[in-house]
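--- STAGE predict ---
source: upstream dedup step, 1 unique chain passed
mode: sequence only
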Amino acid sequence: MSCHRFKVAGGMPELLYVMSMFRCGFKTIGDIGVGNIIDHGNEADGSPESGAVEYRLEGGSAVMIKPSDYEPALEICISAADGSNNTADMEKRICADIESIINIDYRAGYCCE
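--- STAGE serialize ---
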C-alpha cells in the first residue's frame, strides 16, 4: 500500500467540495473501472464530510480517499491487488487522475451523474 497527499487550493470549502465529488462517484479512476464505492462518511464523527471514500477497482485494487485532519489536503492510499502487474504505472495514473480532479475550475460547477 502506498499513500500520497494532495493539497487543495482554496482551503476547507474547496476540500469539502472535492470530497463531495468523490462521494458522487466516478466510473473510472486512472483509466481503471470502478467496481464499487464505499462511503465511510458517518463513521468517523457523524459528519459526512469527515469520512473516507473507498473505491474498489476492477481487478481487485482499491483507492481510499479522505480529507486530512490538519490541512486542506486529501490523503490517498492505493492498495494494489495481489499479482497486479505494473503497480507503479497504475499508481501514477491514479495520482494523475486525482490531481486533475482536485485542480478543476470549481466555478464551472460539477454535476454528479
